[in-house]
Amino acid sequence: MGSRKCGGCLSGLLIPLALWSITVNILLYFPNGQTSYASSNKLTNFVWYFEGICFSGVMTLLSIIFSALGIAFSGYCLVISALGLVQGPYCRTLDGWEYAFEGTAGRFLTDSSIWIQCLEPAHVVEWNIILFSILIILSGLQVIVCLIKIMIQLSKILCGTYSVIIQPGII
Question: Which of 5, 31, 75, 150 is the most exposed place for a label (fewest CB within 10 A)?
Fold first, then answer.
């Protein structure tokens, strides 16, 4: 009985997590709320992998049915978001448009004094750090929830508490 209630709660939790992942990924397309960077293809390349929209968002909604796929796709979102976070934003520097912090192995994350290298879009470093971090947290939670759902389903199947509807007259 408890696992049935818990399974229902976990399914209900996946829906808002997936919707938030979709929303956060969409926000990554509009640094500082401006559309000009997306239309001129001046965004971090990992944004174009649609990790929050397709893999952590829409696919996690389907993972209510396919929890194993939810783990794989949310794990994909987690890894790609971490790579995007470590690589840093694609921004305009004094040398033109580039990944200003690509060679730093993520050290720029703790040294905010070098963020001024990115001249445009305004506050793109903070924007990427916050939104990629949120995607990492959301997808990590989704992996955990899906793992719990699989364990609950397996315990129901293996322990014999999984309800099967038997039609009268069949057996």
Answer: 5
DSSP output for 30-69: SGGG-SHHHHTT-S-GGGGG-IIIIIIIIHHHHTTT-HHH
Residue 167 pLDDT > 50: no
Question: Distance between CA atoms of 101 and 115, rounded to whole angstroms?
Answer: 9
Cα–Cα separations (whole angstroms), residue 83 to 37, 47, 79: 21, 11, 6
**Pair of tokens at residue 128:** 């990427």
* Average of per-residue pLDDT across 52-57: 64
| Inter-CA distances, 72 with 14, 43, 51, 130, 140, Å | 14, 25, 12, 23, 11
For the chain, give the mean pLDDT.
80
Query: Within a 13 Å sphere around the CA of 6, how many CA atoms are in the beta-carbon half?
Result: 14
pLDDT at 44: 83
User: Phi and psi for 123 in degrees, rounded to 5?
Assistant: 60, 25
Q: Quick one: pLDDT band at residue 17, thresholds 50, 70, 90?
A: confident
Closest listed residue to residue 77, CA positions, set 25, 144, 151, 29? 25
DSSP letter assigned to residue 106:
T
pLDDT score, position 58: 60
